[in-house]
Amino acid sequence: MHTRVLTSLMAVMGVQVLAAVPVISMRRSDAWLRRVLPYVISVAVGVLLATGTVHLIPEAVATLGDRSALWLVLLLTMFVLYGFERGFQVFSGVSAEPAPDVEDAHERGLHAHHHHPSKPATLLLGSFTHSLVDGTGVAAAFAISPQVGWVTALAVGLHEVPHRLGDMALLVHMGIDRTRAALLAILAASSSLLGWSLVAVLGEHGSQQAAWLLPVSAGSFLYISMVDLLPELQYERRPMAVLAQILGLAAGIALALGLTRIPGA
User: Fold this and answer.
1) Which DSSP helix (H) or strand (E) runs through 80?
2) What is the C-alpha separation between 80 and 224, in angstroms, rounded?
3) Number of compact structural domains in the chain
4) Contact in structure between 232 and 104 (CB atoms under 8 Å)
5) Which of 23, 169, 193, 244 has the highest CB neighbour number within 10 Å of its CB?
6) Torsions phi, psi for 212 (to 5 deg)
7) Range of the domain at 72
């Protein structure tokens, strides 16, 4: 159990390093990142969908049993995430329609959600909460098995990259210089370590309690992939680029499924 806890800590930290590297690089030059980011998002969607449906949900059913409470937790997770994001829209005065500069960000391939709040504080609060859920999800998955843990970490890492880049782009648009925007985007993700700590403490009382975070993670992954990320891909109209995105989606699914074949995982 101690080995799994340490391994999950390494995975959570690795995810944040993975997301921080392109943010730091973007601080200097973001031309190549703008070109590849839509395809990173495509792969991320595939990994998230496959991880939520093929790994996390079956693992939760196997551990907790096929009970109504499990499916209710998954449903409530998506409901709460939707309510959280819509609440930010209403109380921060953000319109559901993308502003012209956000549409321009889409055209350049940047991951800029329509629902991001216009003020840095609310944007960072949303990112803090998002990363907290990610950290608990990775740690809870490792509490069940290393195999599910690594697949979950991969899924989180692939969607954290565009998420962090989008945060930085929006912070810069809000008037914050690039260096400070990069630092704030990275610091907002540090809450993943807090999420890991909560599960590590919970793990002392057994993985059964931590297993209830599996449907939470699954609901989060399904919501992020279908509500947050897939709409980002709808702005592309070039046939070859659309084909590349579809292939990226398929590659993400294949990647997540392939990790179940790792011997000894």
Assistant:
1) helix 68-91
2) 12
3) 1
4) no
5) 169
6) -70, -15
7) 2-26+35-261
pTM of the predicted protein model: 0.66
Structure tokens at 152: 């979950």
> Residues 110, 116, 117, CA angle at the centre, nearest 5°?
140
Q: What angle, rounded to 10 degrees, do the helices at 68-91 and 213-223 form? A: 50
Instruction: Dig out the tokens for 198 from the structure.
Output: 């909560």
Instruction: Say how far apart CA 194 and CA 136 lie, in whole Å.
Output: 8
DSSP 8-class letter at 184: H
Q: How far is residue 191 from each of residues 12, 134, 180, measured CA to CA in Å? A: 10, 9, 18
For 194-252, write each residue's pLDDT tens digit. 888 888 877 655 456 667 777 887 888 888 888 877 887 888 888 998 999 899 899 88
For 102, list phi and psi in degrees, rounded to 5: -70, -40
**CA gap 189, 207 in Å, rounded:** 25
Residue located via tokens 């989606």:
249
